[in-house]
Amino acid sequence: MENQNFKIKDEIIEKPKTRPTKKATVYDQKPTSAFISASWAALFIGMVSYCIGLWNADMLLNEKGYYFTILLFGLFSAVSVQKSVRDKLEGIPVTDIYHSISWFTTIASIVLLVIGLWNADLLLSEKGFYGMSFTLSLFAAIAVQKNTRDTKFIDEKELEK
Predict the structure, then answer these.
(1) Which of 12, 39, 121, 128 is most enclosed, with most CB atoms within 10 A?
(2) 91: phi > 0 → left, psi -120 to 50 → alpha, else beta; which?
(3) Mean pLDDT confidence for 47-53
């Protein structure tokens, strides 16, 4: 067996580079009135159709209350997620616990609806109706919150000028 010589290189340890600071993104374009109207219409249609479905459903009152509460809980949670995500983007301090709770409650509202519908004595088409109107409502609530925030931001910026 041959004798091998190993050379040990001197390693230069460099100072860790610091991350560049994140620039706050400037949102300077106001949402169009068509998008604002479509967002509000989607929210109204989703919520009203969900509630009409509950009103006409052949369920006990406590079941109707459960599904209505899930709708309200989901809407509030979705708006809270949108707000915390947007605050972080704009450099507004948001605690990690609030951000995490917002995501958790949004996911929990969806899971609770799925569990409720899975165990409900409803036709598959009725279950699909509640799932779709709930999803439409959550998406629309996020869009309405975003539009409201964008519009307010632009209006305040124009007042400063």
Answers:
(1) 39
(2) left
(3) 95
